[in-house]
Design goal:
Blueprint (H helix, E strand, L loop, with lengths): L1 H7 L8 H47 L10
């Protein structure tokens, strides 16, 4: 009986377009939050690693008799 009533009112049919859009939105928001968290957690470690590398390159070039001016800040 319920199916018969639903067939009489085609405009009342339920679609899941809105639900899937919300799910995709939540998925994108979750990924964005994860990226922000990773940047905050690993940002200092990565910055220190680049700084150490720059210092090592500068010290190695100076020890070899070459003059290298690098801004390691």
């Amino acid at each position: 009986m319920l199916e018969y009533l639903r067939s009489l009112l085609p405009s009342v049919r339920r679609t899941e377009d809105g639900a899937s859009a919300v799910e995709y939105g939540l998925l994108v928001a979750g990924i964005a939050a994860l990226v922000v968290a990773i940047v905050f957690l690993l940002g200092g470690v990565i910055e220190e690693s680049f700084s150490d590398t720059c210092t090592e390159i500068t010290d190695g070039a100076t020890a070899g008799g070459n003059t290298l001016t690098a801004d390691c800040s």
